[in-house]
Model the fold of this input.
Amino acid sequence: MEIFGIWVVGLCLILGGNGIVGDTSHHSYRILQSDQTDQPYRTAYHFQPPKNWMNDPNGPMYYNGVYHLFYQYNPYAAVWGNITWGHSISYDLVNWVHLEHAINPTDPFDINGCWSGSATILPGGEPLILYTGIDSQNRQVQNLAVPKNISDPLLREWKKSPHNPLMTPTNGIDGNSFRDPTTAWQGPDKVWRVLVGSLINGSGEALLYRSRDFVNWTKSQIPLHSSNKTGMWECPDFYPVSISSRNGVDTYVKNADTQHVLKASFKGSDYYIMGKYVPETDNYFIETDFLDGGSDLRYDYGKFYASKTFFDAAKKRRILWAWIPESDSASADIEEGWSGLQSFPRSVLLDKNGRRLVQWPIKEIKKLRKNKVTFDNKELKSGSVLEVSGITASQADVEVSFDLPHLEEAELMDPSWTDPQSLCNQKNASVKGRIGPFGLLVLASNNLTEQTAIFFHIFKSTQKKIVLMCSDQNRSSLRQDVDKTSYGAFVDVDLNREKISLRSLIDHSIVESFGGKGKTCITARVYPKLAINTEAHLYAFNNGNQTVKISSLTAWSMKNAKMVPTN
Done:
């Protein structure tokens, strides 16, 4: 029996031991596997519920040996509405069991929707959830939920505080722009702090609230941070990262060896800044603000929104989730019966140079790999395309690094080329340059009529070499009813000291790409008409004038993750 088979049996015993399963003949524990014949865009190893709409990840946490993921969910349709908190659990962040909904819109303080929020683990180990409710007046208010039975290892039932709502939009706060509380943290004075996203007088703000008992909250006169360049801040996140260690840091930790990340979701992307947080005064000192001086720090430069991190105490790491929305039409979502994915969970660390975060798929992904294919030292001459055969190209993990022997031949960077996404549109995969475009063609048809190109293009200025990374969806599908927006970003890598590398996770309708060992990430949704299932192909390519060399390429087919319903 597989290890996961043992895990499922054990889980069933746990469920039965907690009063869920009586006569097992009346319950079906089936493994959810997508029928790729009828559902070619449904993923195999990215998290999604069996059906209907899903958006923001909520309250991820590790508790008593179990990983919990809550998420915004519509139980009735594949479109947004009727928002509840879905709930699934895992022992490895790869294979999941779907449980009953955790929080439902049933009370005056959340009757019109249970929107996003976060989990906090108290010092004694008890988990709590703060979430935004849409009340009977359609105002956004902040509410508290606690486990109904703390001894239940799966935390299947949650009860709402009789004190709800705990925070309401008063004193100039717009009731339509007051949502998404963060994980709370305690200062040295033992007072709890939490941030709530808002928009006040045209500025995005992280409103700061304090409480001694987690019930009675007082708003600070001054927000932790604000910006007049961003619009409304959704799904804020605030957490420390270590300057010197490769381990993650718990939310409450603050010392001289940490910087604090403030993330806000706005304008369709998840932006972040970094600075020094002083808990004694709740001051947050930064060098560069959101969108200042050309600053464009984002978790991901493609389809990636409303993210949430949590600290995994078991493995001393910080893990990042995000909602990956569809690029298909709402009518197609309704026909398929589902909408929305979660990104594959990523570890988050501060880059060694301290300038940005780096992200990488968590190591548990390796248990899904099979059918390894590898080769080294392959030249890609100008115009060449090399197929990577021997794997299931619609469901794969591929890592490649390139040697660039003629960097001095790179074309000169025009100082006006400050927008990498526009530059990727201008110099797409079919536009020949000196060094680049080169990279991967994923979810490609055998005649390359359909292809999604993830590639690099090298430029030079008087001071340095500049690496542009693009995800080009222009030819991703013959269908005309899907969004084929291309994405781009610069990669902060010194080509005189390191090779340029790319890793792509390919899963039927999603491609998550990591450039420069995770310094730049781009996620795309694609819906090929021809390159589906076994008809999908994977290629390395070079459309630049200069020859590039594949230093190494390794690719794996990926097994299906297990998704288990409880009824």
Notes: The CA atoms of residues 428 and 559 lie 32 Å apart.
